[in-house]
Prior knowledge:
297 residues, 12 strands, two-stranded antiparallel sheet, 6 helices
Amino acid sequence: MPNATIKDSTKSIVVLVIGESARSSNFSLYGYDRNTNPLLSNIDNVNHFKTQSCATYTTAGLKCILEHENTGKLYEILPNYLYRNGVDVIWKTTNWGEPTIKVKSFQNKDFLRQNCEGEICGYDEILLKDLQQEIENSEKNKILIVLHTNTSHGPTYYKKYPKQFEKFSPVCKSVELANCTQQELINAYDNTILYTDYILATLIEQLKKIEKYESSMIYISDHGESLGENNLYMHGIPSSIAPTEQLDIPFIVWSSNTSKKIKEDQEYSQHNIFHTVLDLLSVESPIYDESMSIYEK
């Protein structure tokens, strides 16, 4: 892929949070009748977009999020491309299925748990640990941080959040999801969305404290999830015949720069991520497509 150049010296951070099995229909931001987003709904400058995933399983969903166009060809993915062109890149994951990541710092679950104490070590909150310090320690003006979460992956949804987030009960505690009532299944799943809301809101509050950087948070899921509709569970149905539950995903954005205006009437997909991140970090490249950024010039 062609080289890129960084256009300015403005200190900018983008935190890309990749969700796991999160479907938009269970986010109150998208009109769900349960309040699963009590924190995000009260934060200014949070925007959400109607979006479908291009696949129904993690590896393919990640490919779509990280590539610059919908192509079957070999390509250089977003974190590797930016790192090669002078951006500080940190990837933290409690999940799996990533393509080869060539960045400054790749931190998997085992690495993250090495020096971790307390309840957060077993949950996705661990991804936020030491984040502010890592940003403060950076010597670069442009930083991309990717947090690859695991929060809504089944079948054991009830194990993915701390007990204080069990707002909806009773919950399904069987790996045989058909043995639970659909309501028990939905209750457990909704608690994972409530916990996701907390993680994203906490992240935004952390970014607000780092005043020397313009900062942005982008959250998008790899794919959706079936919760018993038409006797389907989890995900993985070929996307050409998959139900909307496995394809409709949340795409949520917050930015500290309130002067940046989001385009109106744009269709959104996972392929908007690459170009929006380049835009936010002021990275100029022959493969940058201005029409694919969610922001106006």
